[in-house]
Amino acid sequence: MFFFQPFNCGGSARHLPVPLPPEFANGPLVLDIVQLSEYAGENVGSKRHSETVYRKGLPWNIMAKFNTKKDSTEKWLDFYLQCAAPKEVSSVWQRFKLSLKMNGTKDWTGKFSDVVFTNKLDAWGFYTFISFAELMIPSKGLYDEYGDKVTLAIDFTADETENCQNLKDKSVLES
Hints:
Elements: E1 2-9, E2 12-19, E3 26-34, H1 36-40, E4 47-49, E5 53-55, E6 58-68, E7 75-83, E8 91-102, E9 105-118, E10 123-131, H2 132-135, E11 149-158
Antiparallel strand pairs: 1-2, 3-11, 4-6, 5-6, 6-7, 7-10, 8-9, 8-11
């Protein structure tokens, strides 16, 4: 079901379809990378995306990809939070707190403020977050060897968007 939510960014109001419910400000974003060993063998840069989750009316997801560092063949997992806002939304300043969990264990927490997501820079995250070799170490418990998968999850809480007026819960038109 789609409702139309008015966006007023940069002085021009537009009505864009937004799947409801956008009012939820927090909750998990989850990406299961299944057949991890096969995925790691693919071309460097191939991406995996989580399902899109709406926070404060904007679409968010996790993007992961394997990469290599300069002058190295070792593979690393890149990990990003993406805001796939419609192109009519020029930019979003966002404050958020996230906890990274891999296969159910809380591994890392950080609080970030004034992160800018734009049409051209829609992702924020960690280039070379963890090496593939480290990810596969059984004693770390990050990799589910029986299911050949790793689960990346972010407990993501979105604050009110700062530069877009009318992106608040009350602006959702219920007709």
